[in-house]
Design brief:
The protein is globular, with a radius of gyration of 18 Å. About 80% of the residues lie in helices and about 0% in strands. The chain has one domain (about 1-145). The chain is an all-alpha fold. It is built from eight helices and no strands.
Amino acid sequence: MEVRNEQLQKDLESKNREIAIATMSTIKRNDFLNEIKRNLKELDGDPKVKKLIKGINKNLKSNDDWEFFENAFNNADRDFLRKIKEIHPSLTHNDLRLCAFLRLSLLSKEIAPLLNISVRSVEIKRYRLRKKMSLNREQNIVDYIMTL
């Protein structure tokens, strides 16, 4: 029984590493694309540049990364998204995404490129999430999510 528990623990740690790697990869890719977009905006006026910026924006808003992340997250942390949705049925898809990132203990500055928004916007989203969950000021949202 102990050997089986140890193996399951190793599998869980492996899945968590897989999630972290995928998340960080997405962060770095989005940072890179945002940097390219900023540089291209300096060349504004050329129709080809506008087409490139439009293509970058489309790629940044792609949900393919989220689907991969969600599958890996569900494999590593079974039923978390289902449980939190049962406890807080008013949460939206984007709220659940934020909860998953918070469950991984990511900071606002790490979450921002994943959602393609500013750090300030992540902080606002966290505040609104706290309100939806009816958490008081003394309760830490990350601690609350970790206990679920």
